[in-house]
Task: inverse folding
């Protein structure tokens, strides 16, 4: 049996004639932040509902913390924290009261429940706001309270649906700082869906890019960026003023910014084209002031992978 906290193997799920998931296979290891990204309609929500036991897969295997969530959610429920994209909170309660209520549902007695509520508010940097009513909290603060609720039972797995969406800069920063600290001991993993790719790139250990219900890219952010390096860009700054016409003659097809004296072009991963362009410039009497290689971002890798999948 796999030791992975999430293990999906060849999972299929359809709704009538709509194929939400097609042979989807992903796993989440202990102690990692795992991002699950893709365009709307790619199967992210369906996957989350399978992990929570709301749906039954049409085929394949679904395991969460070693169990089938449809059959044994009573075993894994206390070990899973779930934060939805639009978390609901009881606005007439204070943050501490709200968390104490949920701690009570986990079986904690009042004094330990209060202590745990204060502790998780400290984790999400809301310790000074614990006695304030939730109705006065911003969306970002409510997101952090919702995350605090997820942490009450010290779960092994956090399922976070769009945690960065629509939150203010401060809340996003705090979330980015907090998530890696939750998995450092190897006893907890985070499975996060998000459209905010710069945040995903900063915080994730591994990323699955999903399109049309299947994984089209899987690996660390760096590994996915390497897949996109055939679209890597080279920026060459020329030392003196040169006309666009002359640059086009020497380097056909290049994008030249005459005002900034910058030459932009896509290069191959092995640097062969880069060397040829530099040699051509020098042979034609042009001096080069600077050369900068701009590697692909995760966002560029994402679009490359999903674009390839969309091609007939």
Result:
């Amino acid at each position: 049996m796999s030791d992975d906290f999430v293990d999906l193997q060849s999972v299929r799920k359809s709704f009538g004639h709509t194929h939400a998931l097609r042979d989807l296979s992903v796993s989440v290891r202990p102690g990692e932040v795992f991002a699950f990204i893709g365009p709307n309609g790619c199967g992210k929500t369906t996957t989350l509902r399978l992990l929570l036991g709301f749906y039954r897969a049409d085929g394949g295997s679904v395991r969460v913390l070693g169990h089938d969530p449809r059959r044994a959610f009573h075993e894994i429920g206390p070990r899973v924290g779930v934060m939805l994209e639009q978390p609901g909170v009881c606005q007439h309660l204070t943050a501490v009261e709200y968390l104490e209520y949920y701690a009570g549902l986990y079986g904690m007695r009042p004094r330990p429940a209060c202590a745990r509520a204060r502790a998780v508010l400290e984790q999400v940097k809301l310790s000074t706001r614990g006695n304030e009513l939730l109705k006065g909290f911003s969306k970002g603060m409510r997101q952090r309270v919702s995350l605090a609720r997820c942490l009450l039972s010290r779960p092994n797995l956090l399922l976070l649906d769009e945690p960065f969406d629509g939150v203010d800069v401060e809340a996003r920063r705090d979330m980015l700082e907090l998530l890696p600290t939750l998995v450092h001991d190897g006893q907890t993993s985070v499975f996060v869906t998000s459209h905010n790719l710069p945040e995903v790139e900063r915080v994730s250990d591994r990323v699955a890019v999903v399109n049309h219900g299947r994984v089209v890219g899987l690996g660390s952010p760096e590994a996915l960026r390497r897949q996109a390096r055939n679209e890597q860009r080279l920026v060459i700054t020329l030392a003196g003023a040169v006309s666009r016409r002359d640059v086009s003659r020497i380097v056909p097809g290049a994008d030249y910014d005459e005002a900034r004296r910058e030459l932009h072009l896509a290069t191959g991963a092995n640097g062969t084209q880069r060397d040829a362009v530099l040699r051509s410039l020098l042979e034609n009497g042009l001096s080069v002031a600077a050369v900068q290689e701009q590697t692909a971002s995760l966002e560029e890798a994402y679009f490359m992978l999903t674009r390839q999948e969309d091609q007939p």
Notes: The two ends are 38 Å apart (CA to CA).
